[in-house]
Amino acid sequence: MGDYESSTDADDTLSRARGALADAFRQDVAETVLPSPELIRHKRDKLHQTLPDGGLGISQVTNHLDEDIVPALNTSSRSRNYYGFVTGGTTPAAALADNYVTLHDQNVQVRLPDETIATDVEDAALSLLCQLLGLDPCVWSHRTFTTGATASNVLGLACAREWTIARLASMLGVPVGSVADLGFVNLMRHVGVEDIQVLTTVPHSSLGKAASIVGLGRLSVKDVGIRHGSHKFDMDKLERALQAPRVASIVVISCGEVNTGFYATESFDEMKRIRDLCARYDAWIHVDGAFGLLARILRGDSFRRVRESCAGIELADSITGDGHKLLNVPYDCGFFLSRNIAVGLQVFQNANAAYLQTASQGILPMTPSPLDIGIENSRRFRALPVYSTLLTYGRTGYEAMLKRQVSLARRIASLVCDHPEYELLPESSEAKETRLERIFIIVLFRAKDETLNTQLVRRINATRRMYVSGTSWASSPACRIAISNWRVDEKQDFIKVREVLDQVVRIYVQSET
């Protein structure tokens, strides 16, 4: 084939891709969640390792994708029974919009209001998202999409670093510049700040990565839980840490801890107390809501406990979230919200690039260019799937999805509680019903038999009927089920999980006798 394809060939290929997309949503999800290891090894040998001089042509490559690549991919997004990593699916509305994203290939970072509507769509999508979460879009003026919660945590710590140093300098009566202009080390030396600390409880690993990227260092992240490994804040310990002289503080609240899904706060009063402490000591509050923020949309008495765990989040200074989890839009999609647009512009302003200035000179846009409030200068139009799916399902549609997911998680947790061979984690003396009320979308458990427990994740995933994540709890192996796919069928999925868990125990016992 030649180096170039005709326009007709390209159109035919696009039509074929759209047909495959439609077929994928019409078809039932396969019984197996993972391809077999043998198939993966076989298809891996089919990968081309040498760049062809003349090119293979679109038809041959399309066949290669269909025959050798797609069959060896897992069904993480399409399967209701992929319970690893809090991987949401992709709603049909989001998938359709994502195809338009590729087709039209907009760079949404540069605001060009007379040339494209892309930036306006992004602002509208973020406004709709705020409304879904019960947040006032006018208050959360610094809002942008990111690649995921990790990038959003980078934005949060960067803004917090800028603001806390300025506040501490003001308290000390020292004229202050900007970290963005002077650099972190120079400004700390000038102001007399000795350290910056990130105070939190059971943080996600991405927080340490973000702290490393923005120059705070992983060791700046300090646990102020009731006890080590507790999701709950020790308020006295938090206040003592905030009182440290010449130390700027950032408080990070886990709105859904990665292993258990439990929340760092469980009521508006707790959040208000943290807000009051941070106001007294000039600390920035950042909420990592990647795992649990969407609980704010749940209504009904049975969801009261998790809903109240998100109460007061609007008191924070910045919030991180993940769209490719419970919002069920394609990878990659995170979002960042902050109430302080001035700090965001100070940190992320893309100065001195004349060719990136808006085409409408002299006209102040209603919203800042995404170029000046985020990391990238170039970025995919990931707002369109969010806009599309939010309009398609609305608040009640997303609430219905989430209720199915939470209900399934609680049924599985109840099964584990009553099962003679499994144990629900964390261990608790609370009544079963009280423990279930705390469950959101994550079920953490272990096998009571120590040998089986070391093999549990591998044995479950080897069935190929469902997929779980391996983790650890109290220095021992543990298994985590995370339910986040819009396709959830509470009755059918519960039957499958019960069958798999019973099958794993039965085969293990047979192998030992």
From TrEMBL:
<dbReference type="InterPro" id="IPR015424">
    <property type="entry name" value="PyrdxlP-dep_Trfase"/>
</dbReference>
<keyword id="KW-0456">Lyase</keyword>
<dbReference type="Pfam" id="PF00282">
    <property type="entry name" value="Pyridoxal_deC"/>
</dbReference>
<comment type="similarity">
    <text>Belongs to the group II decarboxylase family.</text>
</comment>
<dbReference type="GO" id="GO:0019752">
    <property type="term" value="P:carboxylic acid metabolic process"/>
</dbReference>
<keyword id="KW-0663">Pyridoxal phosphate</keyword>
<dbReference type="GO" id="GO:0030170">
    <property type="term" value="F:pyridoxal phosphate binding"/>
</dbReference>
<dbReference type="InterPro" id="IPR015422">
    <property type="entry name" value="PyrdxlP-dep_Trfase_small"/>
</dbReference>
<dbReference type="GO" id="GO:0005737">
    <property type="term" value="C:cytoplasm"/>
</dbReference>
<feature type="modified residue" description="N6-(pyridoxal phosphate)lysine">
    <location>
        <position position="325"/>
    </location>
</feature>
<dbReference type="GO" id="GO:0016831">
    <property type="term" value="F:carboxy-lyase activity"/>
</dbReference>
<dbReference type="InterPro" id="IPR002129">
    <property type="entry name" value="PyrdxlP-dep_de-COase"/>
</dbReference>
<dbReference type="InterPro" id="IPR015421">
    <property type="entry name" value="PyrdxlP-dep_Trfase_major"/>
</dbReference>
<protein>
    <submittedName>
        <fullName>Pyridoxal-dependent decarboxylase</fullName>
    </submittedName>
</protein>
<dbReference type="InterPro" id="IPR010977">
    <property type="entry name" value="Aromatic_deC"/>
</dbReference>
